[in-house]
Design goal:
Elements lengths: L2 H14 L1 E4 L4 E9 L3 E12 L2 E8 L11 E4 L7 E8 L5 H7 L4 E9 L6 E12 L5 E3 L4 E2 L5 E3 L12 E8 L3 E11 L2 E11 L5 E12 L5 E10 L30 E5 L2 E5 L4 E3 L3 E14 L1 E7 L19 E7 L13 E8 L5 E9 L7 E8 L3 E12 L9 E12 L5 E8 L3 E7 L3 E5 L2 E8 L3 E12 L1
Parallel strand pairs: 1-4, 2-16, 14-23, 21-28
Antiparallel strand pairs: 2-3, 3-13, 4-12, 5-13, 6-12, 7-8, 7-11, 8-9, 9-10, 14-15, 15-20, 16-18, 16-19, 17-18, 21-22, 22-25, 23-24, 26-27, 27-32, 28-31, 29-32, 30-31
Length: 476
């Protein structure tokens, strides 16, 4: 064969040698999803490969695959198996893309015209060259140029650089001509998860029932049927890549899943790995929920907190506010003794309590960070309605300089706490005190919560009030 004829035949020869694998060849699938829009996919398929060099079109991979992370392994016959080149074809087949690829090429224009007899219509075919597709289509016919398509277009074939779905094309060498199991692993964006928790407070507010759910979102442009699902909780360091072309997917509303046993958990390096006890399917553009954990009768503590400000102690202010907010917190221990003791992935805990008719009502929510076992979980649910505070500065004087301190202030305060509830409460008062500080006198004991914070515990009777007074000296 002449060299010119050989070169002309080479593209068609290469296409003929390309093997194609789709989801129908899939034998196993495992997906590990990280917190920050990242997942590791391990896709095992059974494919017949010829001996020697060939190309494999690995179809239906993620549209957001990071091709530089792709690794193909031969699990059946690894001897003499290697990968020479891989290309990710993300230019997907659409009518517009097909038209763009035919700029400078001939297409057939088919249009309907009335029969000469006036009854019915017949098809007329003309060849035309596509000149441009920018802001419209320009076609050159034998005797004219038209700027709109006067019928439908017929293309002789689909160009080789257009794919119907995202495809990783791999040039490889196989040591055997047989069916072989190939595992393709790669990192991809478009898959994410988060933890959501629902807590139901008991009527006496001394215990709660906690349920944890994992919300999975698949916007990667691919489906993952019957996948072994694992989740990694923790902050994994990643090098930020340059922006790349991705395929945007619409968000879907969350769908509740039936209850299931808690996910198995284990340590992985400095993170925690959660494994679903059954295969699950992540459809394209889908958000779904699976059960993470459940715990009943977890002991809980309720706390009322009044938080001061450091600037109170640097000047003369008098009245420091008509009515100040008292925050409401609940806290519990993530311990086995409290019927928990499982590492909790970061997420939002939403708290409910039943009203007098037995209907669950939302009473607040707060976010938690990754929380290991034996740690405290503290949630701010809102501001108290029936517990209020008024604060005023009753005395202030500047004592000038003292030794190494350039400013010395002494001031006195009065905080009136009122409780309209039918049961007594205890309010924690936290006062950020700057510099070198000392409480000279107080109506309630003061402890040093931190180097710069004084802490008071004030019991307020039911439908009554209590007053906290104290004097403090601050040196700067």
């Amino acid at each position: 064969m002449r060299p010119a004829l050989l070169l002309a035949a080479l593209p068609s020869l290469l296409v003929a040698q390309e093997a194609v694998t789709t989801l129908k060849d899939q034998k196993a699938l495992a997906v590990t999803i990280y917190n920050d829009n990242l997942a590791l996919v391990k896709d095992t398929r059974e494919v017949r490969l010829p001996k020697g060099e060939s190309r494999l079109a690995f179809q239906e991979v993620s549209a957001q695959i990071r091709p530089e992370t792709a690794l193909l392994r031969n699990l059946t016959h690894p001897k003499d198996f290697w990968v020479a080149e891989q290309n990710f074809d993300f230019d997907l087949l659409t009518p517009q893309k097909l038209l763009e690829k035919y700029v400078g090429e001939k297409v057939t224009v088919v249009r309907s015209v009335p029969n000469e007899s006036g009854a019915g219509a017949k098809e007329v075919r003309e060849e035309a060259t596509v000149l441009a597709t920018n802001n419209g289509t320009v076609l050159q016919f034998a005797d004219r140029i038209e700027t709109s398509v006067p019928g439908r277009l017929v293309f002789p074939k689909v160009p080789g650089n257009l794919r119907a779905r995202p495809t990783l094309v791999i040039s490889l060498n196989s040591g055997a001509d047989r069916e072989q199991k190939l595992e393709l692993s790669y990192l991809t964006g478009g898959l994410s998860w988060r933890a959501d928790y629902v807590a139901n407070l008991a009527p006496d507010e001394k215990t709660l029932d906690l349920s944890g759910w994992v919300t999975l979102t698949n916007q990667s442009g691919a489906a993952y049927p019957n996948a072994t699902l694992q989740l990694v909780a923790g902050d994994v360091n990643r090098v930020q890549p340059r922006p790349e072309r991705v395929y945007a997917m619409a968000e879907m509303a969350a769908k509740a899943a039936p209850p299931a046993p808690r996910m198995a958990e284990e340590s992985l390096f400095e993170y925690h790995l959660y494994t679903l006890d059954r295969p699950t399917t992540l459809a394209v553009n889908q958000t779904k929920q699976v059960a993470l954990l459940s715990a009943s009768a977890v002991p809980v503590r309720k706390d009322y907190l009044l938080q001061g400000q450091a600037y109170y102690y640097s000047g003369s202010y008098g009245d420091l506010g008509d009515k100040q907010k008292v925050g409401v917190f609940v806290e519990f221990d993530n311990k086995e003794a409290s019927r928990l003791g499982m590492p909790l992935p970061k997420g939002i805990i939403r708290v409910y309590k039943r009203d007098g008719e037995g209907r669950a009502q939302f009473v607040g929510e707060d976010s938690i960070d990754h929380t290991p076992k034996n740690e405290l979980v503290r949630l701010k649910l809102g501001e108290a309605f029936d517990v209020t505070a008024r604060r005023k500065q009753t005395d202030y004087k500047s004592l000038g300089k003292q030794g190494k301190f350039g400013f010395v202030h002494e001031s006195a305060y009065e905080i009136e706490l009122k409780n309209a509830k039918k049961e007594p409460v205890t309010v924690t008062v936290l006062e950020p005190m700057p510099g070198d500080w000392e409480v000279l006198q107080s109506s309630h004991p003061c402890t040093k919560a931190t180097a710069g914070t004084g802490k008071f515990q004030v019991a307020v009777p039911a439908e009554g009030k209590a007053t906290l007074t104290y004097r403090v000296r601050v040196r700067w």
